[in-house]
Design goal:
single chain; 40% helix; globular; 238 residues; alpha/beta; binds NADP nicotinamide-adenine-dinucleotide phosphate
Length: 238
Amino acid sequence: MNTTKTALVTGSNKGIGYAVAHELGTQGFRIALGARDDARRTDAVARLRNDGIEAFGVALDVTSDASVAAAAATIEREAGRLDVLINNAGIGGRTDDGAQDPTTMDLDVLQHVLETNVFGAIRVTNAVLPLLRQSDSPRIVNVSSNMGSLALQTGPQMAAYAPSKTLLNSITAQYARALSNTNVVINACCPGYVATDFTGHNSGRSPEQGAAIAVALATLPDNGPRGGFFDDAGPIPW
Ligand code: NAP
Protein backbone atom coordinates (compact mmCIF):
# COMPACT_ATOMS: atom_id res chain seq x y z
CA MET A 1 0.00 0.00 0.00
CA ASN A 2 1.23 3.48 -0.89
CA THR A 3 2.15 5.20 2.38
CA THR A 4 2.02 8.76 1.03
CA LYS A 5 -1.15 10.33 2.35
CA THR A 6 -3.34 12.36 0.03
CA ALA A 7 -5.24 15.49 1.04
CA LEU A 8 -7.97 17.16 -1.00
CA VAL A 9 -8.36 20.87 -0.30
CA THR A 10 -11.35 22.48 -2.01
CA GLY A 11 -10.95 26.03 -3.30
CA SER A 12 -7.20 25.85 -2.85
CA ASN A 13 -5.97 27.92 -5.78
CA LYS A 14 -5.57 30.90 -3.41
CA GLY A 15 -6.16 32.26 0.07
CA ILE A 16 -6.48 30.04 3.11
CA GLY A 17 -7.04 26.92 0.99
CA TYR A 18 -3.73 27.38 -0.79
CA ALA A 19 -1.95 27.94 2.54
CA VAL A 20 -3.51 24.76 3.96
CA ALA A 21 -2.45 22.83 0.85
CA HIS A 22 1.08 24.25 1.07
CA GLU A 23 1.49 23.37 4.76
CA LEU A 24 0.04 19.86 4.41
CA GLY A 25 2.28 19.36 1.36
CA THR A 26 5.29 20.53 3.35
CA GLN A 27 4.36 17.97 6.02
CA GLY A 28 4.50 15.23 3.37
CA PHE A 29 0.98 14.93 2.08
CA ARG A 30 0.35 14.57 -1.63
CA ILE A 31 -2.00 17.44 -2.45
CA ALA A 32 -5.12 17.06 -4.54
CA LEU A 33 -5.62 20.74 -5.35
CA GLY A 34 -9.32 21.34 -5.91
CA ALA A 35 -10.12 24.42 -7.98
CA ARG A 36 -12.82 25.23 -10.52
CA ASP A 37 -10.83 27.42 -12.90
CA ASP A 38 -8.38 25.58 -15.16
CA ALA A 39 -5.75 28.33 -15.37
CA ARG A 40 -5.85 29.18 -11.67
CA ARG A 41 -5.63 25.48 -10.78
CA THR A 42 -2.69 24.81 -13.10
CA ASP A 43 -0.85 27.84 -11.76
CA ALA A 44 -1.40 26.86 -8.11
CA VAL A 45 -0.26 23.26 -8.71
CA ALA A 46 2.89 24.62 -10.38
CA ARG A 47 3.58 26.88 -7.40
CA LEU A 48 3.30 23.94 -4.98
CA ARG A 49 5.57 21.79 -7.15
CA ASN A 50 8.12 24.61 -7.34
CA ASP A 51 8.30 24.37 -3.57
CA GLY A 52 8.97 20.62 -3.77
CA ILE A 53 5.43 19.56 -2.91
CA GLU A 54 3.80 16.58 -4.61
CA ALA A 55 0.53 17.83 -6.06
CA PHE A 56 -2.03 17.19 -8.75
CA GLY A 57 -4.93 19.31 -9.89
CA VAL A 58 -8.56 18.31 -9.43
CA ALA A 59 -11.15 20.21 -11.46
CA LEU A 60 -13.78 20.96 -8.85
CA ASP A 61 -16.80 23.23 -8.69
CA VAL A 62 -18.45 22.32 -5.39
CA THR A 63 -21.85 23.50 -6.64
CA SER A 64 -21.96 20.92 -9.45
CA ASP A 65 -22.88 17.27 -8.95
CA ALA A 66 -21.13 16.32 -12.18
CA SER A 67 -17.95 18.21 -11.31
CA VAL A 68 -17.80 16.70 -7.83
CA ALA A 69 -18.37 13.16 -9.15
CA ALA A 70 -15.62 13.67 -11.73
CA ALA A 71 -13.31 15.03 -9.02
CA ALA A 72 -13.82 11.91 -6.89
CA ALA A 73 -13.01 9.77 -9.93
CA THR A 74 -9.83 11.79 -10.55
CA ILE A 75 -8.65 11.26 -6.97
CA GLU A 76 -9.41 7.54 -7.14
CA ARG A 77 -7.41 7.28 -10.36
CA GLU A 78 -4.47 9.38 -9.14
CA ALA A 79 -4.23 8.24 -5.52
CA GLY A 80 -6.53 5.24 -4.99
CA ARG A 81 -7.77 6.59 -1.67
CA LEU A 82 -8.10 9.84 0.28
CA ASP A 83 -6.73 10.54 3.76
CA VAL A 84 -7.77 14.15 4.39
CA LEU A 85 -10.61 16.30 3.08
CA ILE A 86 -10.58 20.04 3.76
CA ASN A 87 -13.91 21.63 2.81
CA ASN A 88 -12.51 25.13 2.38
CA ALA A 89 -14.25 26.52 -0.72
CA GLY A 90 -16.54 29.32 0.36
CA ILE A 91 -18.04 32.63 -0.64
CA GLY A 92 -19.33 35.63 1.27
CA GLY A 93 -22.02 36.58 -1.22
CA ARG A 94 -23.07 40.04 -2.40
CA THR A 95 -23.89 42.57 0.30
CA ASP A 96 -24.91 45.62 -1.77
CA ASP A 97 -28.51 46.90 -1.82
CA GLY A 98 -29.30 45.24 1.50
CA ALA A 99 -28.76 41.80 -0.03
CA GLN A 100 -27.69 40.42 3.36
CA ASP A 101 -29.85 42.57 5.61
CA PRO A 102 -32.45 40.03 6.76
CA THR A 103 -35.26 42.57 6.29
CA THR A 104 -34.37 43.06 2.62
CA MET A 105 -32.68 39.75 1.96
CA ASP A 106 -31.92 38.82 -1.64
CA LEU A 107 -32.98 35.18 -1.64
CA ASP A 108 -30.85 34.46 -4.70
CA VAL A 109 -27.79 35.52 -2.70
CA LEU A 110 -28.84 33.31 0.21
CA GLN A 111 -29.37 30.38 -2.14
CA HIS A 112 -26.00 30.86 -3.85
CA VAL A 113 -24.14 31.15 -0.54
CA LEU A 114 -25.83 28.05 0.90
CA GLU A 115 -25.26 26.14 -2.34
CA THR A 116 -21.52 26.81 -2.11
CA ASN A 117 -20.76 26.88 1.62
CA VAL A 118 -23.12 24.14 2.81
CA PHE A 119 -24.46 22.00 -0.03
CA GLY A 120 -20.99 22.10 -1.58
CA ALA A 121 -19.33 20.70 1.55
CA ILE A 122 -21.94 17.92 1.84
CA ARG A 123 -21.75 17.12 -1.87
CA VAL A 124 -17.95 16.80 -1.80
CA THR A 125 -17.85 14.91 1.51
CA ASN A 126 -20.32 12.27 0.39
CA ALA A 127 -18.66 11.86 -3.00
CA VAL A 128 -15.23 11.15 -1.49
CA LEU A 129 -16.35 9.31 1.66
CA PRO A 130 -15.81 5.90 0.03
CA LEU A 131 -12.20 6.97 -0.69
CA LEU A 132 -11.75 8.31 2.85
CA ARG A 133 -13.00 5.04 4.31
CA GLN A 134 -10.03 3.31 2.65
CA SER A 135 -7.61 5.39 4.74
CA ASP A 136 -6.17 4.23 8.08
CA SER A 137 -6.83 7.64 9.66
CA PRO A 138 -9.29 9.70 7.63
CA ARG A 139 -9.84 13.31 8.66
CA ILE A 140 -12.41 15.86 7.48
CA VAL A 141 -12.14 19.56 8.30
CA ASN A 142 -14.93 22.00 7.49
CA VAL A 143 -13.62 25.54 7.25
CA SER A 144 -16.30 27.53 9.01
CA SER A 145 -16.28 30.94 10.71
CA ASN A 146 -16.92 32.33 14.16
CA MET A 147 -19.50 34.49 12.36
CA GLY A 148 -21.59 31.32 12.37
CA SER A 149 -21.52 31.14 16.17
CA LEU A 150 -24.98 31.92 17.56
CA ALA A 151 -23.39 32.49 20.96
CA LEU A 152 -20.84 35.05 19.73
CA GLN A 153 -22.81 36.81 16.95
CA THR A 154 -19.56 38.42 15.85
CA GLY A 155 -18.36 40.21 12.72
CA PRO A 156 -20.35 42.30 10.28
CA GLN A 157 -24.02 41.47 9.79
CA MET A 158 -24.17 39.11 6.80
CA ALA A 159 -27.49 37.30 6.92
CA ALA A 160 -26.60 34.80 4.19
CA TYR A 161 -22.96 34.12 5.03
CA ALA A 162 -23.18 33.87 8.84
CA PRO A 163 -26.13 31.41 8.84
CA SER A 164 -24.37 29.36 6.15
CA LYS A 165 -21.56 28.76 8.63
CA THR A 166 -24.04 28.06 11.46
CA LEU A 167 -25.56 25.37 9.26
CA LEU A 168 -22.11 24.05 8.30
CA ASN A 169 -21.31 23.74 12.02
CA SER A 170 -24.54 21.87 12.67
CA ILE A 171 -23.94 19.56 9.72
CA THR A 172 -20.44 18.89 11.05
CA ALA A 173 -21.96 17.70 14.34
CA GLN A 174 -24.42 15.50 12.43
CA TYR A 175 -21.57 13.91 10.46
CA ALA A 176 -19.64 13.30 13.68
CA ARG A 177 -22.64 11.43 15.08
CA ALA A 178 -23.10 9.42 11.89
CA LEU A 179 -19.38 8.55 11.79
CA SER A 180 -18.90 8.01 15.53
CA ASN A 181 -18.28 4.27 15.16
CA THR A 182 -15.75 4.73 12.36
CA ASN A 183 -12.19 6.03 12.17
CA VAL A 184 -13.36 9.12 10.24
CA VAL A 185 -12.69 12.15 12.44
CA ILE A 186 -14.53 15.34 11.46
CA ASN A 187 -14.36 18.84 12.94
CA ALA A 188 -15.03 22.44 11.98
CA CYS A 189 -12.66 25.37 12.39
CA CYS A 190 -12.46 29.14 12.20
CA PRO A 191 -9.28 30.52 10.60
CA GLY A 192 -9.71 33.96 12.18
CA TYR A 193 -9.96 37.17 10.21
CA VAL A 194 -7.39 36.63 7.46
CA ALA A 195 -5.91 38.75 4.67
CA THR A 196 -7.32 37.16 1.49
CA ASP A 197 -9.34 38.30 -1.53
CA PHE A 198 -12.39 37.41 0.58
CA THR A 199 -11.64 40.20 3.08
CA GLY A 200 -10.00 42.60 0.62
CA HIS A 201 -6.71 41.75 2.36
CA ASN A 202 -7.90 43.99 5.17
CA SER A 203 -6.16 42.11 8.00
CA GLY A 204 -2.72 41.64 9.50
CA ARG A 205 -3.34 37.90 9.82
CA SER A 206 -1.71 35.86 7.05
CA PRO A 207 -3.27 32.93 5.17
CA GLU A 208 -0.57 30.74 6.74
CA GLN A 209 -1.72 31.78 10.22
CA GLY A 210 -5.31 31.17 9.19
CA ALA A 211 -4.42 27.73 7.85
CA ALA A 212 -2.86 26.48 11.08
CA ILE A 213 -6.03 25.29 12.82
CA ALA A 214 -7.26 23.43 9.73
CA VAL A 215 -3.87 21.72 9.41
CA ALA A 216 -3.92 20.79 13.12
CA LEU A 217 -7.39 19.23 12.79
CA ALA A 218 -6.35 17.43 9.59
CA THR A 219 -3.50 15.76 11.46
CA LEU A 220 -5.24 14.89 14.73
CA PRO A 221 -4.42 11.57 16.38
CA ASP A 222 -7.06 8.81 16.27
CA ASN A 223 -8.28 9.73 19.75
CA GLY A 224 -8.58 13.43 18.94
CA PRO A 225 -11.79 15.42 19.34
CA ARG A 226 -14.74 14.81 17.02
CA GLY A 227 -17.62 17.03 16.02
CA GLY A 228 -16.09 20.16 17.53
CA PHE A 229 -15.58 23.75 16.42
CA PHE A 230 -12.11 25.17 17.03
CA ASP A 231 -9.80 28.08 16.45
CA ASP A 232 -6.19 28.57 17.52
CA ALA A 233 -7.30 29.26 21.09
CA GLY A 234 -9.41 26.10 21.45
CA PRO A 235 -13.14 25.30 21.27
CA ILE A 236 -15.41 28.07 19.96
CA PRO A 237 -18.88 28.45 21.51
CA TRP A 238 -21.59 27.22 19.14
P1 NAP B 1 -10.78 33.38 -0.98
O1 NAP B 1 -9.38 33.87 -0.99
O2 NAP B 1 -11.86 34.17 -1.63
O3 NAP B 1 -10.78 31.88 -1.55
C1 NAP B 1 -11.96 31.18 -1.71
C2 NAP B 1 -11.69 29.95 -2.51
O4 NAP B 1 -12.94 29.23 -2.69
C3 NAP B 1 -11.16 30.25 -3.92
O5 NAP B 1 -10.21 29.29 -4.27
C4 NAP B 1 -12.41 30.12 -4.79
O6 NAP B 1 -12.13 29.79 -6.13
C5 NAP B 1 -13.06 28.95 -4.07
N1 NAP B 1 -14.46 28.76 -4.48
C6 NAP B 1 -15.50 29.62 -4.37
N2 NAP B 1 -16.61 29.07 -4.90
C7 NAP B 1 -16.26 27.85 -5.35
C8 NAP B 1 -16.95 26.78 -5.98
N3 NAP B 1 -18.25 26.89 -6.32
N4 NAP B 1 -16.27 25.65 -6.28
C9 NAP B 1 -14.96 25.54 -5.97
N5 NAP B 1 -14.24 26.49 -5.38
C10 NAP B 1 -14.89 27.64 -5.07
O7 NAP B 1 -11.31 33.17 0.54
P2 NAP B 1 -10.57 32.71 1.88
O8 NAP B 1 -10.54 33.87 2.79
O9 NAP B 1 -9.33 31.95 1.58
O10 NAP B 1 -11.69 31.73 2.47
C11 NAP B 1 -11.54 30.32 2.52
C12 NAP B 1 -12.55 29.78 3.53
O11 NAP B 1 -12.30 30.37 4.80
C13 NAP B 1 -14.01 30.10 3.20
O12 NAP B 1 -14.82 28.98 3.48
C14 NAP B 1 -14.34 31.26 4.13
O13 NAP B 1 -15.72 31.31 4.45
C15 NAP B 1 -13.49 30.88 5.34
N6 NAP B 1 -13.18 31.99 6.22
C16 NAP B 1 -12.41 33.02 5.82
C17 NAP B 1 -12.12 34.06 6.70
C18 NAP B 1 -11.24 35.21 6.32
O14 NAP B 1 -11.05 36.13 7.15
N7 NAP B 1 -10.65 35.23 5.12
C19 NAP B 1 -12.65 34.04 8.00
C20 NAP B 1 -13.45 32.97 8.39
C21 NAP B 1 -13.70 31.95 7.51
P3 NAP B 1 -12.02 30.94 -7.29
O15 NAP B 1 -10.64 31.49 -7.22
O16 NAP B 1 -12.31 30.16 -8.54
O17 NAP B 1 -13.08 31.96 -6.99
